[in-house]
Amino acid sequence: MKIYTRTGDSGETGLFGGGRVPKNAARVEAYGEIDETGSAIGLAIVALEAAAATTGIAGQLRTVQEDLFAIGSHLATPGALEGGAASRHLPPLPVHRVAEMEGWIDEADGELEPMRFFILPGGTEAAARLHLARAICRRAERRVLTLLAEEPVDSRVVIYLNRLSDLLFVLARLANQRAGLQDIPWVGRR
After folding, report:
1. For the segment 127-183, what is each residue's pLDDT rounded down to a tens digit?
2. Is 6 part of any domain?
């Protein structure tokens, strides 16, 4: 199978189940941001695996990457919400993971000092990459909301992304703490 098809050279792309749309269509933007979120999480996993004190976090994030592929497939399929023909071939939306992520957040929070100030992204490489993944996840959430305003989309995707960004924030703090680094406080005006 060739990696290039030349079918997108005119600025359009094919959707799962058929149809072509501009590459900057709201649907393509939404699943593109999901893809970017998964890629950023992949970079964070590499940094986490290089750090000895991050046991368990990389495994959780690999599960999230799998979830994001499923979410992306739903976003790439017009009519998925209505149960169109193409939707029968999709993996189920991982909406059950929201409760599991809340458990992961609570567990990580149990290791952390309570936040008393806003923090700046940074610290260890792993934490910085997790913060970047969080920011990209928030952008993905905004793109899904844009799509939701135009077309039917399962609104539980927004809930998943909202919880994922919370998880990424807490895991960034945890990566710093396990490395013996304090969060970097935002001091505001100087």
Report:
1. 999 999 999 999 999 999 999 999 988 999 999 999 999 999 999 999 999 999 989
2. no
Give the alpha-carbon dihedral of 120, 125, 129, 132, to 10 degrees: 30
Strand stretches in 20-106, DSSP E: 20-22
pLDDT tens, residue by residue, 44-82: 999 999 887 667 899 999 999 999 999 999 998 887 766
Give yes or no for a contact between 77 and 90, defined as CB atoms under 8 angstroms apart.
yes
SS3 assignment, position 131: helix
Query: Cα–Cα distances in Å, from 43 out to 127, 132, 141?
Result: 11, 10, 20
Instruction: Kindly tell me the burial class for residue 161, based on how many C-beta atoms sit within 10 Å of its own C-beta (0-12, 13-18, 19 or more).
Output: buried
Provide the domain count of the chain: 1
- CATH (domain of 91): 1.20.1200.10
Structure tokens at 87: 């939707």
Average pLDDT estimate for 12-23: 64
Nearest to 113 by CA among 159, 181, 54: 181
